[in-house]
Amino acid sequence: MGGGPSKMAPESLMDEWRCVWGHKNKDLQFVKDYQPYNEEVKQLRVLLHGLTGAGKSSFLNSVDSALQGRVTRRALADKQLTYKFNKGGPGTFYPFVFTDLMGLEKGTNKGVCVEDIKQAMKGHIKDCYEINPCSKISEDNQNYNKDPTLNDQVHVLVCIIAANTENILDDESVIKMREVRLAARDLEIPQVAILTKIDEACPEVKADIKNVYKSRYLKKVVDDLSAKLGFTLTCIFPVKNYHSEIDTNDEVDTLILSALNMIINLGEDYVNSL
Question: Which of 38, 47, 74, 98 is buried deepest, with most CB atoms within 10 A?
Answer without folding.
Answer: 47
